[in-house]
Backbone:
């Protein structure tokens, strides 16, 4: 069967299912969304093992934690939300909002998040009474397909329409491209090529930009508390999370304290110029991140550079000789390696972060550890990113948590800086259309010209 015929068949089946769910009540929709999340939660270990074995990157324990954590936080975020029928009434404005489905969603999902992204996208689609077709990355097709199969087994018992959630078991670039052009809306999570294809599909699309999280430390924080948080964020799933901390921008007066805390927490400082060069060459051959080191442990990265480190090493902290375009260490490093930069003034810290973001990561996120509100707000006013995580582990929390109010998601919009449609977390609220009933505002009186043009 040709790819075009195959995709058209998928979409035709999805449209039949979508017409059925379009008649569901809010309560019926929410039962399905809860079951999607609960399926991944209940099968977290099985799916984590499959993902590690198939993709050969990441950390099993972290993937278990991610599967369970994302299932919990995404369901918790959406469970009381309205997405069916009348969702808002604003009597003082004379506006009533009515939610309506978008249709069939094409979701292109990455090898770095092969379980939680299909789960998340399916929950968002179903919440809006849409059908969805998942196009997984070829390197993670088996575990993504298994995820959808397990979900569908549960949904069938609840009487959900067949083919509401489908997954392409043998994905190709051609099939993914046709899916994006044939469905009604596109969710693209992956590399720049996938996102560009989504925005070129001719369909409404939500894509994400590249990550390169700058982590700025202030002088007034407890380094014994903060450093373990930064290391946990950098090491989570061996550094393949786009929201993981990449660089430690540290006050010169505190650098010895920071390095000491790194060493206490199984970090190794790479500051010998020859070793710095060897690590750079191993990680960025030809100026591009070495794909064979993506998602690998600090031990394997060090070995690739010919550097001996202790067996319990969790992260490599490399003293970068330059920042921005003058050194590859300023770029995204998808393994447990952090670059160390020092500054004398807060303005200099912001300048370092900005220069690094100009190389990669504009629009994504910045982590700040500070108790100085003026410093925090100045950085937020100047740096071109969509999220600032304050005194938190960035990697798991930029996508929303039980302790902050960012929308729970696996897809982080990066705005025009990152070539994206949105500069916020993609959420279930983005996957339904809204009709507005507009009546004359109660008591509305036209202002005079003097009132309109006056001060």
Residues:
């Amino acid at each position: 069967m040709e790819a075009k015929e195959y995709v058209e068949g998928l979409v035709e089946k999805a449209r039949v299912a979508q017409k059925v769910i379009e008649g569901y009540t809010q309560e019926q929709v929410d039962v399905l969304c809860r079951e999607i999340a609960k399926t991944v939660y209940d099968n977290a270990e099985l799916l984590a093992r499959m993902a590690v074995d198939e993709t050969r990157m990441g950390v099993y324990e972290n993937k278990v934690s991610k599967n369970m954590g994302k299932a919990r936080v995404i369901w918790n975020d959406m469970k009381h939300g309205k997405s069916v029928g009348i969702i808002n009434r604003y009597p003082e404005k004379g506006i009533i909002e009515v939610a309506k489905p978008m249709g069939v969603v094409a979701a292109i999902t990455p090898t770095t998040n092969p379980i939680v992204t299909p789960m998340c996208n399916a929950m968002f689609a179903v919440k809006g009474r849409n059908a969805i077709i998942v196009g997984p990355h070829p390197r993670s097709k088996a575990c993504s397909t298994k995820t959808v199969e397990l979900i569908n087994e549960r949904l069938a018992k609840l009487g959900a329409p067949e083919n509401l959630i489908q997954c392409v078991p043998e994905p190709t670039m051609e099939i993914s491209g046709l899916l994006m052009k044939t469905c009604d809306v596109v969710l693209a999570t992956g590399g720049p090529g996938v996102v560009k294809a989504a925005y070129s599909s001719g369909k409404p699309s939500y894509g994400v930009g590249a990550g390169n999280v700058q982590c700025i430390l202030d002088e007034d924080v407890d380094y014994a508390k903060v450093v373990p948080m930064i290391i946990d964020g950098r090491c989570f799933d061996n550094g393949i999370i786009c929201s993981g901390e990449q660089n430690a921008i540290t006050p010169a007066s505190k650098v010895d304290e920071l390095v000491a805390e790194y060493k206490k927490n199984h970090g190794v400082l790479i500051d010998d110029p020859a070793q710095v060069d060897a690590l750079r060459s191993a990680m960025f051959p030809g100026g591009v991140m070495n794909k064979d080191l993506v998602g690998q442990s600090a031990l394997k990265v060090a070995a690739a550079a010919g550097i001996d480190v202790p067996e319990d090493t969790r992260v490599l902290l490399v003293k970068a000789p330059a920042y921005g375009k003058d050194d590859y260490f300023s770029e995204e490093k998808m393994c447990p390696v952090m670059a160390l930069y020092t500054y004398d003034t807060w303005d200099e810290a912001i300048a370092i972060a900005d220069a690094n973001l100009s190389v990669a990561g504009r629009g994504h996120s910045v982590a700040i550890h500070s108790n100085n509100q003026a410093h925090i707000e100045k950085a937020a006013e100047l740096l071109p990113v969509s999220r600032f995580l304050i005194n938190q582990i960035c990697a798991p929390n930029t996508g929303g948590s039980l302790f902050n109010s960012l929308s729970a998601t696996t897809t982080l919009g990066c705005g025009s800086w990152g070539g994206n449609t949105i500069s916020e977390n993609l959420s279930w609220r983005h996957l339904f259309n809204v009709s507005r009933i507009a009546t004359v505002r109660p008591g509305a009186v036209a202002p005079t010209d003097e009132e309109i043009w006056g001060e």
User: Anything to note?
Assistant: The chain has a mean pLDDT of 96. The longest strand covers residues 245-251.
